[in-house]
């Protein structure tokens, strides 16, 4: 997503892998309930064969116990959900794996994973992947790649599940409503085996809504303002250092830099956002 820079990219990518794994679990459960063990096996294997290797470095660096738990859960999932496993036990294995993914997300990504904007970024990444999956899965109104079709649908469904955890007030009630309507339209298009161009268009409506929220939150003006404020904090650190060392010439240099080098570029954004804050910073 275009504004993922607002968060640590490693955490964004790790969360994306975990959310794709959750999507595969949805598809795995669907196929288990329908008795399609071949497709169930495909979705049981995808998280460990396609996702885990890229997640492992970030998982291991953040929390070794979470990495081990995820590795064990994903490596055993196909065996625990095979055709020789009673359905109830197979479904229990799916639910246990969901819980382990939730645990790993909390342990490695932390509170940021609960932020509305972080969740929106994950939705956008899932939806972008879903477009690709559907594009290779459907041709001429027919499913030509069943696993990829289910991948695409699973990522759409998972996006909806994430949206359900976001307080509509955090993104705007009208935007939340628009996203839900568009998600329903996308799922309807899947049911109709619509042309990939239609599914892409419908899915992009949701992505546009997501980008609209994120761009408002992380506009270039806000990013630049935050950068300048952080530079100011750096000068204050250097000012304090030189005061303590009795170097008043260097202290004066760092005292002046924020107002001579930074304030003019910050003033428009400060004044537009909060006149009181602008006056306080200037004084």
How would you portray this structure in words?
This protein has helices at residues 9-34, 37-62, 64-80, 87-108, 116-137, 146-164, 168-171, 173-191, 196-217, 220-245, 248-273, 275-282, and strands at 138-139, 142-143. With 283 residues, the chain is an all-alpha fold. It folds into three domains: 1-111; 115-218, Up-down Bundle (Four Helix Bundle (Hemerythrin (Met), subunit A)); 220-282. Strands 1-2 form a two-stranded antiparallel sheet. Helix 10 (220-245) packs antiparallel against helix 11. The longest helix is centred in the N-terminal third of the chain and has 26 residues, at 9-34. The protein is elongated and about 80 Å long. Mean pLDDT is 89; it is low at 1-5.
Which labels suit this protein?
283 residues, mainly alpha, Four Helix Bundle (Hemerythrin (Met), subunit A), 3 domains, 1% strand
> Got a strand count?
2
What class would the helix/strand composition place it in?
mainly alpha
How many helices does DSSP assign? 12
Widest sheet: strand ordering: 1-2
Could you report the average pLDDT, rounded to the nearest whole number?
A: 89
Main beta-sheet annotation: 2 strands, antiparallel
Provide the domain count: 3
What is the rounded distance between the termini?
38 Å
- DSSP strand content: under 5%
| Rg measurement, Å | 24 Å
- The ordered string of helix (H) and strand (E) elements is HHHHHEEHHHHHHH
Low-confidence stretches: 1-5
Shape: elongated
Share in helix:
over 70%
